[in-house]
Amino acid sequence: MEILALGVQADEKPLIEAAFGAPHGVRCLDVFLTEDTAPIAAGYEIISTSVNADLGNRVLQTLAAGGTQMIAQRSTGFNNIDLQVAERLGMTVARVSYYSPYSVAEFAWTLGMAVNRRIVRASNRTRDFDFRLDGLMGRDMRGRTAGVLGTGKIGEAFARIAHGFGMRLLGWDVAPNPECVALGMEYTDKERLLAESDLVSLHVPLLPATQHLIDATALRTMKDDAILVNSSRGGLVDTQALVTELRAGRFTGVGLDVYEAEAGLFFLDKSLEAVPDDVLARLVTFPNVVVTSHQAYYTVDAVTQIVDTTAQNVLDYLAGRRTGNVLVPAPPSS
Predict the structure, then answer these.
(1) Is 233 among the residues known to form the active site?
(2) What is the pLDDT of residue 52?
(3) Domain boundaries for CATH 3.40.50.720 within the chain
(4) Per the residue annotation, which of 74, 118, 168, 294 is the catalytic one?
(5) Is 3-99+300-318 a CATH 3.30.2010.10 domain?
(6) Active site (annotated) includes residue 106
(7) Is CATH 3.40.50.720 the right assignment for the domain spanning 101-291?
(8) pLDDT in tens, 252-305
(9) Strand residues in 155-267 grouped as ranges (E)
(10) pTM of the model
(11) Which one is catalytic: 74, 203, 233, 250?
(12) Where in the numbering of this chain does the D-isomer specific 2-hydroxyacid dehydrogenase NAD-binding domain appear (predicted)?
């Protein structure tokens, strides 16, 4: 049985082909799943999708009409999938519930330090043989406060790095992580964490309760010279409100690996097009902002785990096994 994998990056392709291999073939396409591309999946019982796939009602209807019965998403997040529709259509949907938390945690710190030490600006200057230091002054992290919103596996890994820097740790989550408590993290409410933290990093899933977790009020609560990092999901931040605060001259730096309207933009080459997203266009002009294209997970270690787990999800489906990676029927809201 041939499996169709959509939204495959060039670096991913050999890993996917090796993971699926015999006895199942795999057809890898770099196009992303949308309403326009969904008909491509006709005749494929099993497809594998990327995190930016559109798996809303209309796409799922098209897939089901074409014979697709199983969707194996190559990501942990699943906010792009209408699970209720998938269940109604009798489709099995599986995700990757775990992969290397260090890939994302380390990248979050890469973003944080890049804006703190003005790495992008410095690199651009030296390419023009401008070796001045004006405007490049950063701050030591030692002795400052890191606020971690979401202290699961990734948040814990982020906190361990912060602990290594010698930072004070504040955490916010539905329940304390004992490993973080052992590092000296103090759990508190969101408002106090935002008010006292020099660097705030987001590591919570995107749910209705966390949509725009960092809204205009939250942004105004933060220190004027704070650093904000989001390597989780774009919808956690009200980007328009963030632009408003940046225009007022606030924040030492902002590092974003995700954007709430990234679908149809991230992972694609738009360099020769006029991007109609005015908010994103304004955001990337700020000298204290670094935006990357949802690449925090993108290490050989993490992607190998993701692909291998996706292949196992397919094998489990074919064998009639139900594992913790299966999302349908939809899990209860948390």
Answers:
(1) yes
(2) 86
(3) 3-99+300-318, 101-291
(4) 294
(5) no
(6) no
(7) yes
(8) 999 999 999 998 889 888 889 888 899 999 999 999 999 999 999 999 999 999
(9) 168-172, 186-187, 199-202, 227-230, 253-256
(10) 0.90
(11) 233
(12) 112-296
